[in-house]
């Protein structure tokens, strides 16, 4: 004997479709729900809005919000927060602000998630003073910021190179009863390294260790990138060794940082050894960034013949060169105008997508 589906069953299916990016199927199922007389509840409506926002369908998401209001199902703070987050990620401050005002006008008090989403929207539009005012006003409104709120603000500041301001916000966290976590430090480390403030970044690494926090993969990759950018590849490889001992599995970003660092130093042999050995062990699948770094190093120090070997390998593996890859190769070709064969090969690749 079968069981009839209910609104909860359909809501779960809709979530699944959205997770796979199957927006058309999700909307088709929603229409079927309405057609068959099911009455969506607030969870179903909010799930639909979340799925639409996650797939960049902000106009449709707003239409669903209006549908909720027409059907006598008033949106709650989770519904509004979902919309604000969607607008924030789309860089649409007007949409986020209108949703915020709509929420307030309907007597729905924002919670810490709604505030944090609005802070994110402001930061993505470089309105950092307004974001800070919002954070500082939260406690007065009876909704103190949490660590995620501060992390969001610090990430926005670091992304715009405002690391001094970000450091001050780190210091302010504890005054608000919040304590930094590893994500806080990851954002700050990344910001400091991007503006070449390596010593300060490494000082915060010591602070992380003193606080007894465990470094995660993002932390290791960020510090490793800092060592390599500072020309401290040996220290970077020691950190890589520690990472393995601690049981943190490297990812594509880790290997790309290492290969790029060795290529930049002119140590192409070491870079290709790492590339070949890890690839052979099936521990990692090189991507366009890996190949572009390798091709750049090979073109600069070995020559076109060796570069073509790796270009052919790249294409055979189904990895399409991007604009950065072509820039490297074209510069190399023009610096070797006397060698016509590589130019013919390039012409064939551009024409057919592979060597003919």
UniProtKB/TrEMBL annotation:
Membrane-crossing residue ranges in chain numbering: none
PPR repeat feature ranges: 6-40, 41-75, 76-110, 111-145, 146-180, 181-215, 216-250, 251-286, 287-321
Keywords noted in UniProt: Repeat
Keyword Repeat (UniProt): yes
Any GO molecular function: mRNA binding
Highest taxon of source: Eukaryota
Recorded family membership: Belongs to the PPR family. P subfamily.
NCBIfam families: PPR
The protein, known as: Pentatricopeptide repeat-containing protein At3g48810-like
Name of the gene: LOC110747924
